[in-house]
Amino acid sequence: MKAITTAILVSFGLGIFGAEIPKAPVPPSPYLPIIYKYADAMLERGRDTNGVFHSALNRVTMVPLVFRDSGPTPHDHQNLLRLLYMLTELSTKPKYRDAADAELRRFFSKADSRSDLSYQPWMLWDRCFDLGSEPNRQFAAPREHNLAMGFPRYAGFYLRTWATAYARTTNELPLNAIDRVVRDLEIHRDPTTGIIWLGPDISHPWVLSGLSLAIDCDAASRLVPEPLTSKLRGMADEQDRMFCSRPHDLKGTGGFISGDYLATDAGRKTTLWTPSSGRYRGHTTAQVGMMCVSRYENTGNVAYRDLIHVAADAYLKSMPTPEDDVWPMTFGHAISLQVAAWRSTAQQKYLDRARELADFALRHFFDQGPLPRASLKSTHYDASTGADTLALGLVELHLNILGITAVRCPANTIDR
Question: What pTM, to 2 d.p., does this model score?
Answer without folding.
Answer: 0.88
